[in-house]
Amino acid sequence: MSDITLPAAPMPIESAPAARRKKRLSPARIGVYAFLFSAALYFLLPLYVMIITSFKSMDEIRNGNVFALPVFATTAPWQDAWNKVSGGFWNSVAITVPSTIIPILLGAINGYALSFWKPRGANLLFGVLLAGAFIPVQVMIYPLVWMMARAGVFGSLPAIVLVHVIFGMPIMTLLFRNYYASVPHELFQAARIDGGGFWRIFLQVMLPMSLPIIVVAAIMQVTGVWNDYILGLVFAGRDNAPMTVQLNNVINTTTGTRLYNVNMAATILTAALPLAIYFISGRWFVRGIAAGAVKG
């Protein structure tokens, strides 16, 4: 009889210790968690005070217990605050919408042209636009006031929109130029071989694939325009004063009693839109940054 060789017993598979091992709370990790918790508490505590104060009556606020929850919550301060700043809210919407769409569109066209077509003097033009991003706003206020007063548009809605478009163009061009620089050039060459021209390639090829960077640009422009105070105060005029200007008028009143609950509610209403945008589209913001917003 021939000997029958039995198969060797399978060796036990060793588990990867790095992947299966439970994470231990080392002193360094505890320190990191403690720092993060302290930082979150530091930034959330003022917001907590603002929210609970906005639901208190003035008699309860005068008791001095800042961190206590309201005993009898009331929405009257919110109604009063909305009545005072609602006009500024719609003014801010009317300013923000065109001041976001126009710079993004122009910045996308500029970035596309500078990345792929590279006309004569493109580097010089990009340098001039980039230099404009570092010029302080305060330096340009008087020349812009003088020119718009001569043109007869000072203190109007087109004036404040034009100012935001001018100051938004450099950073929008930089974002889109760096984003398109990370796109493979072979894609552009293939579109050119297929007979695509400047506008056809931009509208049918580049623009549809630019959603991540468009979201990044929209978040930056919306928050910048919405939170602006100095440009709205100077160029918008009384009829088009944005929400930030009206908020300053509400808080810095010099007559009567200072209504802290109304002031807190008005402040939260003013900051609600930028906060909502960050919470809703934060994932797109990170994706757009990672997709090439800071690549050069």
UniProtKB/TrEMBL annotation:
It is found in: Cell membrane. Its main location: membrane. Residues 89-281 form the ABC transmembrane type-1 domain. Keywords: Membrane, Transmembrane, Transmembrane helix, Transport. The chain crosses the membrane at residues 30-51, 89-112, 124-145, 151-176, 197-220, 259-280. InterPro entries: MetI-like, MetI-like_sf. It is a multi-pass membrane protein. Belongs to the binding-protein-dependent transport system permease family. This is Carbohydrate ABC transporter permease. It comes from Massilia phyllostachyos. The lineage of its organism: Bacteria, Pseudomonadati, Pseudomonadota, Betaproteobacteria, Burkholderiales.
